[in-house]
Amino acid sequence: MKNQMLYPNCSEMVFRLSGDLEEIREQMYNIVEWTRKEYIGDVGGGDKDTLSDHMKKSIAEVNNKIKNATTLEDFEKIVIEFTCNYETFFKVDENNGLLVATCNNYEWTDVDKEEVYDDEIDYYAVAGQTSYKLYDIIDGYSIFKLEYADEDHKKFPLFIFADKEQEFSDEDNRDVSIGKDVRFAIRGDAMYKIENNHLIKVNEIQDKVLLNKIKILANLGG
Q1: Cα 55 to chain center, whole Å?
Q2: End-to-end CA separation in angstroms for the chain
Q3: Does residue 5 have a pLDDT over 50?
Q4: Is the pTM of this model over 0.85?
Q5: Are 158 and 96 members of one domain?
Q6: CATH code of 152's domain
Q7: Dist CA 156 CA 210 (whole Å)
Q8: pLDDT in tens, 152-184
Q9: 99 plus 133 within the same structural domain
């Protein structure tokens, strides 16, 4: 198995995990374990500390998701929100490897990396995540507007129209009110909300008649 690290940008880092599913699963565990050791001061030169109950729970949840993954695409749904400075995202690449977008403040020694250079792959391309603001709620349907509608965000839809019965929270796990930010990630043609170290698919309005009605009521046109 050969793992590759792509050229880092600022304190962001992207590296690739290669091999079969079980080899990549082992490396996923190593990523979580390295993060745990950083927190308790076993590596990285920080002060010795103990894990909080919240951190123990988060680590256990991520490890359980890794254990239950049956495809590389299952790894894509995992987000390690407790890594330093930058959350850690995963994305299957065209060679059936797994790209890891994370922070280069960690040495990641146990992940056995080989550095390569690639200017076209950076943290944000792999993470595929950005912020939206809750624009309005109409008849229980939540409407989100892309916060940065510029050229760099052209792959993201300008609006997300979420179906009923779906709850959204901010970075502090509080219910979102109008005007507040919510983080989303894109995988293929679907949008996912980032919540509790996991990507959860957003159920978007599919009925075109209903969608046009919601747009009109929100003053967005038909």
Answers
A1: 18
A2: 52
A3: no
A4: yes
A5: no
A6: 2.40.50
A7: 22
A8: 777 899 999 999 888 887 666 667 789 989 999
A9: no
Contact 13, 102 (CB under 8 A): yes
Contact (CB, 8 A) for 199 and 77:
yes
Which residues, at least 6 apart from 156, have a Cβ–Cβ distance to it below 8 Å?
130, 146, 184, 186
Res 3 pLDDT > 70:
no
pLDDT tens figures, 110-156: 997 655 456 677 888 889 999 999 999 999 999 999 998 777 777 89
Which two three-digit tokens encode residue 47? 């002060």
Cβ atoms 80, 27 nearer than 8 A: no
Sheet containing 89-92: give its strands across.
89-92, 98-103, 12-17, 3-6, 113-115
Whether 163 and 144 have beta carbons less than 8 Å apart is answered as no
Structure tokens, 71: 């495809």
* Structural domain contains residue 52: yes
- Report the 3 state secondary structure along 197-211: CEEEECCECCCHHHH
Same domain, 182 and 102: no
**Residue whose C-alpha is closest to residue 134's, from 126, 122, 125, 143:** 143
Count Cα neighbours of 52 within 13 Å in the Cβ-side half-sphere: 4
Q: Which one-letter amino acid corresponds to residue 37?
A: K
| Angle ∠(114,116,120) on CA atoms, nearest 5 | 140
DSSP strands (E only) in the chain:
3-6, 12-17, 89-92, 98-103, 113-115, 129-138, 141-146, 159-162, 181-187, 190-194, 199-201
Q: Using CA atoms, how far apart are residues 204 and 78, in angstroms rounded to an integer?
A: 21
Query: Residues 12, 87: one domain?
Result: yes
